[in-house]
Amino acid sequence: MHLQTSVLRPIVSSFNLIGDDANWNRFTGLPWDQLNPSLLTEGQRGAVVFVSYVEDHLPGYFHEYQTLFPIEDAQTTEEAIHNRELFRFIVRWGFEEDKHAQVLTMYQLKSGIEPSEEVLERRMIEENRKSFSIGFSEPVQVFTYTLLQEKATQMYYQALGRRVTEPVLGKLLNYLSKDEARHYSFFCQLLEAFVRTAEDPEKEVLPMIEDVIYSYKMPLHNTMTDYRRKAILMAREAPDYDRNAPQAVLTAMLEKMAQKHERLNRPILKMTEKMRSRLSVR
Ligand SMILES: [Fe+2]
Ligand SMILES: [Fe+2]
């Protein structure tokens, strides 16, 4: 089930309206002359490597979106129009994620985390060539998954940034978390539109969202070499990052919606109450 294009369009436009002004320069926007790698801990180096892989998988994420929201192969003209409109978001979002990947790679090289461009490139491409699937094809589920992913990265970058004393990485994490916050906000608006416009949200939309929340796992968790060990180490670098925090934020966002719309009050609260106890969200 797709959103009506008339509902989707203002959300995409408002994302791009802010996005057009929210640019930062990956080459000149960071104080590279102040780079001081000796301030990096071993764990922080590992965290940079880990998030580089996650960001660098953009071609896989982008391809998945292109496959799920085709234009040439759309079933109907309406669907093609919808997907064309969504593409205005996808392409900007993809550009920003690719920028994240490139700047993190540059950081690895300049700071000496991996000084050899050739070694780094081969390492990155090896992960890049592993196939990726969101695991859902219903648009509202695809968007819920990405929403959680955006929130997770935003919160992780913030938490890591609080510990980092190396000035270039500190500034970079700040840029990244602001971009991820904008991405999160876009998906939030999409989800709200799905729930608000559904005829019977309790049947059509809420159970689908719930399904994603309970099964959520970070991308690449099943493909990245040595994922578990890397994930544990990166979590250690940002001790105030809570793994369930993205789900908790989504729960609170749904509850806010329940307050705003009388009709949605009961079905949403029924669902979020269960979510709070199952995920131990306070
Ligand atoms: Fe990113
Ligand atoms: Fe993002």
From TrEMBL:
Keywords: Fatty acid biosynthesis, Fatty acid metabolism, Iron, Lipid biosynthesis, Lipid metabolism, Metal-binding, Oxidoreductase
GO molecular function ontology, one term from the record: stearoyl-[ACP] desaturase activity
GO BP field: fatty acid biosynthetic process
Cofactor or coenzyme needed: Fe(2+)
Sequence similarity: Belongs to the fatty acid desaturase type 2 family.
Protein's name in the database: Acyl-ACP desaturase
Organism of derivation: Leptospirillum ferriphilum YSK
Lineage: Bacteria, Pseudomonadati, Nitrospirota, Nitrospiria, Nitrospirales
